[in-house]
Every structure is written in structure tokens, then in C-alpha cells.
Design goal:
Layout: E1 19-21, H1 24-37, E2 52-57, H2 63-76, E3 81-86, H3 106-113, E4 120-122, H4 126-129, H5 149-152, H6 156-171, E5 175-179, H7 183-195, E6 201-205, H8 225-243, H9 249-261, E7 266-274, E8 288-298, E9 301-311
Parallel strand pairs: 1-4, 2-3, 2-5, 3-4, 5-6
Antiparallel strand pairs: 7-8, 8-9
Length: about 325
């Protein structure tokens, strides 16, 4: 039995179905209605001002997305508003990628969101987000969009930033939450917000993993049982690299590569140890925090993952 519909003016009890809108006009009306009804402050209760939080997704929601929404609920506060966008953005798909086949289940997604405190779902069609067709003016990710994912998916990061900026303008949140699994995307969004002076707080949430260690992804549904077993090499490689941090940067790379090279059916696009702020490769004499990233194909499915690494002086 479907959950009760959430009142369009604001938050409702747990399990209430979020309001779903598909157009700019309906979104604007729902946002204004909440703004007019939201308490200016709930200082007496210790919660502070009510805030609007947004989680941007492409649908096919899994536990990783739902954890982001739970975090958004906490960031917004009991009297705040949590907006989830569901939009499969064509700008971030390259030629030959899985735009048409990307899993879509809006009704199932909305039912899941009812259990984690979402108030409003914005699920536009492409002609709503891009009313004039393919946009002439786009956001450039600069050199952040030219390495790693950018090298293997040219234009991908520009497409991500373009739609993120548009959705930030449309939703006008106080805080936006992104998963750390897409580490390069999170860095690019943070730099865009800083470089373009956007008035929004960006919060990164830890990667959610299945019990076997595989990072949750909507694309995991493409994996056969055998392919899923092979895909576990990604998280094993990252753990091996992190555990080798005391041996220096070169040892981190070697340990992770060894795991991947020993696994049949895993075609590696890149394995990189980078500065967590700039995404530049770290030198072998690097000391301190770094980020180990991997992208690989298992069968026809492309997966990404990453792990924070503390690189220590090499022991001789």
C-alpha cells in the first residue's frame, strides 16, 4: 500500500510519500510554499534555522543514495526541507555509453524515499532541464575534467558541473550532499562552488559498501554473479594500497596494481594515487594524505572506487 502523500508545504511524518514534481513551475511553487510556511528559527528547540538540503541523483536508488538522504535530513533539521532530484543527465554520457539503458524506476525510487525523510522529488524530463536543446553555454571543469575520468570520458565532468549548477539554481538549497565514491566529481563541484562564489555548502558523505566490500552503484545491477565476484578486486586493491601506505607512494601503487593484475576479467582504465585537493599525481617522495582511485571494466560494466591513503616515510 503506498505511503500517504507528504503535504506540499513542508515536512511530514516518517513514511509519508514525498511530493513529486516534474516541471520548473511546479518545483518553484513547492519551494515557495515551503519557504513561506517554514519557521524562521527553532532556537528554542536547539535546531537553529530551518534549511533546505538537496541530494542530486540519476535514480535507480540504492542504499548509498538513501544514506545521503538521511544525512540531508540531519543537515536540514527537523523543520527543514529535503529535496531529491532524479534526472538522467544526457550531457554526462559519451558516445557509446549507457544513456538509453541506464536503469530507471521512478515509482520504486519514490517509495524508497518515503522511508528516509525526503519531502520533495524533482524528476524533470530533459526538455525541462534543457528547454532550448543542447546548451551552448556550459560549465568547464578545467584541468580537473581532463584527467582520470576526463581522459576516458571526455566532456563528462563538464556535463556533470553544468547540470549541478542548473539544479542548484533551480532548487536554491542551503546545503547539497554528494557521495565520496565519485571523488573527482565531488572535488570538481567544490571547486566550482568556490571559484564561482555560489552560496551553498557542499557536504561529502562516505562511500556506502555492500557486505562484501563492493561500493554501491546503480550499475552494479548489470553485473552477473561471476562478474560481481571479479569486481571485488577493486575494493581489495584499494585496501591493499592503503595498508601499504607506510612503504611510500610507490609501494601503495605496487600493492594495489598487484591485486588488479592477478584478477582475470578486470580491464583497468586507471589506477592513480593523487593529491586529494588537486587530483594531481603525487610523486614517489610524497608524504601525508593522498587518494587512491581506480576505474575498471568488468564485462561491459564500468565501475569506479577510491580510498583515502596516508603515505608515511618509507622504512629502510
Amino acid at each position: 500500500m503506498p505511503a500517504a502523500e507528504r503535504p506540499e508545504g513542508g515536512a511530514a511524518g516518517a513514511g509519508a510519500r514525498p511530493v513529486v514534481v516534474h516541471t520548473r513551475e511546479a518545483l518553484r511553487e513547492a519551494l515557495v510554499r515551503w519557504t513561506m510556511s517554514a519557521p524562521i528559527s527553532s532556537v528554542a528547540g536547539g535546531d537553529g534555522p530551518a534549511r533546505r538540503a538537496v541530494v542530486m541523483t540519476m535514480g535507480a536508488l540504492h542504499e548509498g543514495h538513501l544514506e545521503l538522504v538521511r544525512r540531508a535530513r540531519a543537515e536540514a533539521g527537523a523543520n527543514g526541507q529535503v529535496v531529491v532530484t532524479i534526472f538522467v543527465n544526457p550531457l554526462q554520457f559519451g558516445r557509446g555509453e549507457d544513456l538509453a539503458a541506464y536503469p530507471r524506476d521512478l515509482e520504486g525510487d519514490v517509495e524508497k524515499l518515503a522511508s528516509v525523510g525526503a519531502d520533495l522529488v524533482f524528476a524533470p524530463a530533459p526538455d525541462v532541464v534543457y528547454p532550448y536543446g543542447d546548451p551552448i553555454v556550459r560549465v568547464s571543469a578545467g584541468r580537473i575534467g581532463e584527467v582520470l575520468e576526463g581522459e576516458f570520458r571526455p566532456g563528462h565532468m563538464d556535463g556533470v558541473l553544468t547540470v549541478v549548477l542548473k539544479l542548484l539554481h533551480l532548487v536554491r538549497p542551503d546545503v547539497a550532499l554528494f557521495g565520496q565514491k565519485d571523488a573527482q566529481q565531488l572535488l570538481a563541484v567544490r571547486r566550482m562552488v568556490a571559484d564561482l562564489d555560489l552560496d551553498v555548502e557542499i557536504v561529502g558523505a562516505p562511500t556506502v559498501r555492500d557486505s562484501d566490500g563492493l561500493a554501491l552503484s546503480s550499475r552494479n545491477a548489470y553485473l552477473s554473479d561471476e562478474e560481481r565476484e571479479r569486481a571485488l578486486a577493486l575494493s581489495r586493491a584499494l585496501r591493499a594500497g592503503a595498508e601499504a601506505g607506510a612503504g611510500g607512494a610507490a609501494e601503495v601503487r605496487r600493492a594495489a596494481s598487484e591485486v588488479l593484475n592477478a584478477t582475470e576479467g578486470v580491464e583497468v582504465d586507471y589506477l592513480a594515487l593523487v593529491d586529494p585537493i588537486t587530483v594531481d599525481d603525487v610523486p614517489d617522495d610524497h608524504l601525508g594524505p593522498a587518494l587512491l582511485l581506480v576505474a575498471a571494466r568488468v564485462g561491459t560494466t564500468r565501475l569506479i572506487d577510491n580510498q583515502a591513503v596516508e603515505v608515511s616515510p618509507q622504512v629502510t
